């Protein structure tokens, strides 16, 4: 299936994603690139379509993580299903970003999948799932986050406390 984007549009975006430094801080993205993070976000649905196209190519874990991060800022309903799929990725960093992205997008269809992510062996995944559920709110999210207050990891417990504060606002 041919790309629905103008020639070079997705390839420029792919180059930016692959080369952006300081991956964990999107405010610092764009150094050494003609495309800044703000430019990327302003592309909205066009950027979302490119990101989903990249994801279909099963990129390496770092790129999958970056795509999940970016989808959280530019994505809409088209990105929800692929992000839910990333919640079962073998790399915890990818799952963490997917959970955070689902929280930012705010689609309630993600709630049962984020609740499942609370059972991950990785405490960072559980913490991000708590935070995402805090963004999504609702009875099921609140009950799951409340149960996580008893998690064995102090970081997860702190994330659950913060999520409950967010829910109650």
From TrEMBL:
Coiled-coil intervals, chain numbering: none
InterPro entries on file: ARM-like, ARM-type_fold, PBS_lyase_HEAT
Gene3D superfamilies: Leucine-rich Repeat Variant
Superkingdom of origin: Bacteria
Pfam families the UniProt entry points to: HEAT_2
Protein name: HEAT repeat domain-containing protein
């Amino acid at each position: 299936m041919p790309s629905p984007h103008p020639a070079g549009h997705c390839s420029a975006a792919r180059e930016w994603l692959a080369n952006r430094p300081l991956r964990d801080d999107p405010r610092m993205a764009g150094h050494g690139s003609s495309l800044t993070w703000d430019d990327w976000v302003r592309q909205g649905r066009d950027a979302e379509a490119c990101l989903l196209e990249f994801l279909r190519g099963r990129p390496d874990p770092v790129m999958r993580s970056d795509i999940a991060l970016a989808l959280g800022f530019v994505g809409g309903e088209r990105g929800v299903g692929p992000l839910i799929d990333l919640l079962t990725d073998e790399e915890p960093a990818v799952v963490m970003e997917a959970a955070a992205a689902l929280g930012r997008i705010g689609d309630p269809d993600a709630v049962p999948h984020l609740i499942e992510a609370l059972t991950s062996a990785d405490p960072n995944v559980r913490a991000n799932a708590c935070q995402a559920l805090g963004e999504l709110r609702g009875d099921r999210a609140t009950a799951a986050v409340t149960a996580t207050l008893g998690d064995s990891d102090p970081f997860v417990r702190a994330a659950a406390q913060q999520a409950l504060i967010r829910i109650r606002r």
